[in-house]
Amino acid sequence: MIPLIYVLAVSLMMFTVGLYGILTVKGGIRLLISIEILVNSANLNIVAWGVGIADASAVLFVLFSIAIAAAEAAVGFAIFVALYRETKNIGLKSLMELRW
Amino acid sequence: MSLLINYLLPAFVLFAFGIVEIFWSFLTKENRHFSYIAILGGILAFILLLLNIDEHYSNGVFIFDSAGTILSLLFVFLMVVIAFSTFRFNYSHPEIFYSLLLISTGSMVLAVYSSNLISIFVTFEASSMATYILASYPKSRKTLEASMKFFVIGALSSSIIIFGISFYYISTSTFSLGYTSGSSLYLLSLIFLMVGFGFKLSLFPFHSWAIDTYTGSRSPVSALLSTSSKLMALAIMIRIFIFTFDKGLSGYVQLFFIIISIFTMTYGNVTALVQRDVKRMLAYSSVANAGYLSLVFTILPGSGPELALAAIIIFSIAYILMKGGSFIAMENFEDKGTRIEDLSGLGKKRPLLALSFTILLFSLAGIPPTMGFMGKYFLFLSLIEGNLWWLAIIAVLNSAISVYYYFRVVMYMYWKNSDKQISGNAYIDYAVFSLSILTLVLGILIPVIIGSFYNIWGMIP
Hints:
heterodimer; A: mainly alpha; Helix Hairpins; 0% strand; B: two-stranded antiparallel sheet; globular
C-alpha cells in the first residue's frame, strides 16, 4: 500500500500545475484542461483518504465531482464556441471590451 | 408535516416548471407565454415555501430552518419579479432564459438548506452552471465576454472549493458540517473554502470578475447574479463557519474576515465614487455591500451571535430588494447607454420609474425610513454589541461615502435635462415600483417584527 503522504504530494503537484496553467494560458481549451487537472488533484486526495479509512462517502463525492466537472466542461465549450462564432477568436487576451 | 418531500417540493416545482418551459417551446415562440409559466411556477413555489416557514427538520444532508426558508422566499420572489419585468423581452429562444432562471433559483433554494459538503457542492455547482449560461443571454459580444469571465473564475473557484473539501475530509474524516479538528490542515481547508465561496460573494481580492460580469450581462440577469447567487454563497459560508468558532481557531478566522471586510467595503465604495457608468457604479456598490455582508463573520465568535444572525437576515432582505430593483431599473437604459448622462431628465420623462429608483437608491445609501437603513442599523448594532465598535465606525464612514455616488444619480435624474428618448416598457416600471414600495413598507414594519428573526438558524453549536 502506498503511504498517504505520497498521494498528497502528487495531488499538491497537480494542483500547482493546474493553478499555473489557469494563470498563464492564453487559449480557452488549455484553460479547460487546467481546470480538469485542478479538479482531479482534489479527487485524488479524497479517494486516497477514503480508501485509507474505508469510507464509502469519499467515492460518492468523487462520482458527483467527476459528473459536475464534465458538465462544467460542456458549459465551458458551449460558451467558447458561441464566443468563437461572434469574434473568430477565443484568446483570453482579446477580451478587453468591458473596461472603464 | 415533517416529511422530507414537503421541504423539497418547492425546489422540485421550480425544476418541473423549468422543464415545462423547454417543452412549451415546441408550441409557441412568444416571450410572454414563457414569462407566464415562470411567474406561475414561482408563485406556486412561494406558496409551498410559506407553508413550512415555521417548521424545523434536519437529516444528514439538508437542514430545513426558518432562515433558509426566508432566503428561499426572497430568491423566488426576485425570480418572479425578474420574470415579470422581462415580459416584453424580444429575443430568440426565450425558453432557455426562463428555464435557466427557474432551475438556477431551484438550485439556490436547495443550496441554502444544505448541511453536508456533498449537497452544498452539488447544489452550488448546479446554480453556478445555470448562471454561466444566463449571463450570456441574449447572445452578443458583450454578454458572451461577461459570461466567459464569469465561467473562468467560477470554474477556478469551484476547483478551489473541491480542494478545500478534500482537506476538510482528510482532517475530520466526514463531509458533514459540525465536525472540527485543531489541525493546521483543517485551518487550511477553511481558508480554501473561504476563498472559493469568496469568489462568488465577490470579496475584495476576488471581486474583479463581478464588475465585468454585472456590467456586461443583461440587467435582469445582473439582478439575479448580484443578489440571489451572492446570498446563496453567504448562507453556505454561515453554515460552514458557524462551527469553526469557539474551537481555538476563532482568532485566525475572525482576523481574516476583519481584514477582508474592511478592504472590500473601502475598495468598493472608493472605486464606485469615480464611475461614470451607472451599471458599473452599481456593480462596485455591490462589492461594497459584500463587505457589509461579510461583517457577520467577524461578529459570530462574539458572546451573542443571535443579534448578528438576525441582522444578517434583515440585511439580506434589504439587499435583495434594493440591489435587485436598481439593476432591473437599469434595463430601461440598456439599448441607449447606461452612462450617468443618459439618466438625465428621467424625473420628467418617466416619473414613476424615477421615483421608485430614487427610493431604492436612498435605501442603498441607508436613509432612515427605508429597509436599507434598518439592515445597516441592526448589523452595525450587533458589531457594537460584539465589542467591535471601531469596525462599526469604519462601516458607518463607508456608508457615508456611498451617499455621494447614489445622490449623484438622483441629482442627474431630477436636476439635469436632455432630449434623449428612453426605451423600456411599463412592466419594468411596475416591477421596480413594487420593489421600492416593499422597501418602504418593510422598513417601517421591521422594528415591530424584529423579535421573530431571532433563533431562526438551525444547527447553532
